[in-house]
Amino acid sequence: MIEYIQSLLLIISAFLMIISAIGLISLGKDTKNIVYARIHIVGIFDVACIIAMIGIGQFLLAGIYFVLAPFIAHAIANAYWKKEDRENNLDLQNVEEVVDENHPFIHPKEKMQALESEDSEKLKADERFSVTTLEIDEVD
Question: pTM for this structure?
Fold first, then answer.
């Protein structure tokens, strides 16, 4: 009886993998939000692999994969959203640089570029990095 259940799980897994492969291959390159669509299709591969691992008796590996797969998919989607998805993430298109002139550690980009350029006459390479100390007077 156990062999029949294992065989059934492997057949279901194979069926899901075939459907996912057809979906991944037929997905056009001009599809809007293609990364998210691919992550969704690969999620079906993940489920098929978990079913296959259960079918062959690898319960611990299936459990670990079941826990880690959603985190990995979320990390990939989040990285794409924050770094590359300019079409959907309007915050990436409007970047404002607000710099407090009185802050000792944050400087405007233009000022740093001017300091790093070879034509900068304000500071030489040796003087660009300096250490400041704070003097404390001891009161008796």
Answer: 0.53
